[in-house]
Amino acid sequence: MAAARVGLVSSSFSHALHASSSSTSTFTVSLRPPRLRLPPYLPRHHLLPTNYPRPSSSAARPRRLRATMSQAAGNPYAAELAAAKKAVTLAARLCQAVQKDILQSGVQSKADQSPVTVADYGSQILVSLVLKMEAPASASFSMVAEEDSEELRKEGAEEILENITDLVNETIVDDGTYSVFFSKEGILSAIDDGKSEGGPSGRHWVLDPIDGTKGGDQYAIALALLDEGKVVLGVLACPNLSLGSIGNLNGGSSGDQVGALFSATIGCGAEVESLQGSPAQKISVCSIDNPVDASFFESYEGAHSLRDLTGSIAEKLGIQAPPVRIDSQAKYGAVAQGDGAIYWRFPHKRSKEAVWDHAAGSIIVTEAGGLVKDASGNDLDLSKGRYLDRDAGIIATNKYLMPLVVKAAQEAMKEEGILG
Length: 420
Ligand SMILES: Nc1ncnc2c1ncn2[C@@H]1O[C@H](COP(=O)(O)O)[C@@H](OP(=O)(O)O)[C@H]1O
Ligand SMILES: [Mg+2]
Known about the structure:
Layout: H1 12-19, E1 47-48, H2 69-72, H3 78-105, H4 114-134, E2 143-145, H5 158-175, E3 181-182, H6 184-191, E4 203-211, E5 220-227, E6 230-242, E7 258-265, E8 269-274, E9 281-283, E10 296-298, H7 307-317, E11 324-325, H8 330-336, E12 342-345, H9 359-367, E13 371-374, E14 394-397, H10 402-415
Parallel strand pairs: 1-3, 2-4, 10-11, 10-12
Antiparallel strand pairs: 4-5, 5-6, 6-7, 7-8, 8-9, 12-14, 13-14
Helix pairs in contact: 1-3, 3-4, 4-5, 7-10, 8-9
The structure holds adenosine-3'-5'-diphosphate and magnesium ion.
Adenosine-3'-5'-diphosphate binds near residues 2, 146 and 303.
GO molecular function: 3'(2'),5'-bisphosphate nucleotidase activity; metal ion binding
EC number: 3.1.3.7
Protein name: 3'(2'),5'-bisphosphate nucleotidase
């Protein structure tokens, strides 16, 4: 959610909340998370003025995360992957708590989007916290994340800052892994951990704390690790996504378990598991080689991709199936597990794509045996900083369809005057 505007955010995250609410009358939202019940054993030094604490005793030290079988065998990033999974799972729990809070409050306002803002910042703080606590020690911690604290430091943001602080602290207490308590200043400082510029050297975590903030029902917490300019792991928590097929719009049958966690590490393949922790299963892209049999995913929001253009590309390819439109990088997960053949996006303006909108999703597709390219058929370069230097479109599909899709896209773009 680019630059969360305090108290003024529209979102698929919030749409998802309202969509599942039975109330259709006027809503007013008051997101006051229940007051934090601090365990009595927390000493005052856990109030953090500026930064995270280190565990002060063995009891407070984080439990080591267990790697699953597929992570353990020959995976050089097994520890980082376990930390990343823990981070997005905890962040997803915070987001789900906000959803539940709104649903239970009964009276809600579509105009008041501050809960989404609270969840967005809260998610970023928790991911940063877990990575710092769990990932193997390194000389420096660098995170390229969507949000910063600028809006929260402005006059009028006091209440929302308090809400974020309460919600984050409560989530940490409920989880029970860390004896950590954030002050408001600690919250602001933690958000600004995400201000790194990324780039081609060193290690950088790349985070979209809530991806998919407009339109439909899906959203994702998307986290990747960039190592010397290459994405080496990615995790995607999709709290509203059914674990069943995503081929029919916005989820599978009602009996399916909801809440998916996709993950991939370079050279080790891609997996999906339930956010609640079911055994992970290997996933792979479909093997469709005739575009007539293909289906495609695109943004739920019309403003995010040129639908006239994608309609024309689909026609050139002879695609029969109607588009499946969902928010967020859940689309990458859907292609990675073969629910559909193609995900594409062609921005209206030549606006730059943010690195956090593609880093996690793209490795999940490539490790599932697929390809992710720009509209000219070039690999994405995610080492350019906070934004990609390509701006003419992104395509994720299998190796059979990619050349055909690129060719059709080039032709359609020329016809539409998008390419010279
Ligand atoms: N006009 C626009 N064109 C293309 N992408 C846009 C856009 N406005 C916002 N986006 C990006 O599209 C993302 C959502 O992706 P999708 O369209 O696949 O659901 C947004 O992420 P956030 O929701 O994190 O802001 C945002 O980064
Ligand atoms: Mg995003």
